[in-house]
Every structure is written in C-alpha cells, then in structure tokens.
Amino acid sequence: MHKLVVLYSEPADPDHFRDYYVTNHLPMVMNWPGPLAWRYSFDVAATEGEAPYFAVFEADFADAAAMDAARASPQGQRLAADVANYATGGAVIIHYPVQDGTG
Question: Entry's Gene3D superfamilies (predicted)?
Fold first, then answer.
C-alpha cells in the first residue's frame, strides 16, 4: 500500500476553509479514481504544544504507480488546482509506502 498525506497549515479564514472543503473539494475527491480509501480531519492536535497543522487528508493507494496515475488523471489535476481556492495557509503533500508492523 502507498499513502498520500496532505497537511494543511492554518488558513486566513478557517470557516471558509471548512465550508469550501466539505461542500466543494470533498465531492471532487469522491469522484477521484484510484484511492482505495480516504479520510480527513479538522481536529489536528499535537501531543505537546500547538499543532503545526489545521487539517489533514490521507488517501490509500495500491502502490506508488496507482497514486501517480490518480494524481495525473483529469480528476487529480482538478483536485490539485482546487487547493488554491481554500488552503490560503498552504499545504504540505507527502507520500510513502506503508510498511506493516508486526509484533
């Protein structure tokens, strides 16, 4: 599995971010081909001090090639272009292969 994570910094207008994200951006995510699962949260907390991020999004893909294909798709391109409409604080995008833990 391969994971894509988007970490959103504090926006200029948090209420606009939340409303736009839920009303406009997430419906686009629902039509995005490729993710096996996805999730998000506006309740980002740090174990100590203030959290450096306002919101988080994560998506699971079968592998890196599936993620690359999803990001390159027309829907993926529209999603990437839409970020500027709500994420005025910027966003950090990371991705990585997921290693299963065994104990």
Answer: 3.30.70.100
Per-residue pLDDT tens over the stretch 12-21: 999 999 999 9
Residue 51 is assigned to a structural domain of this protein: yes
Burial class (CB in 10 A: 0-12, 13-18, 19+), 36: exposed
Query: CATH no. for residue 67?
Result: 3.30.70.100
In a domain, 102, yes or no: no
Please answer whether residues 45 and 51 qualify as being in contact, where contact means their C-beta atoms are separated by less than 8 angstroms: yes
User: Sign of torsion, CA 72 85 20 15?
Assistant: positive
Q: What is the model's pTM? A: 0.93
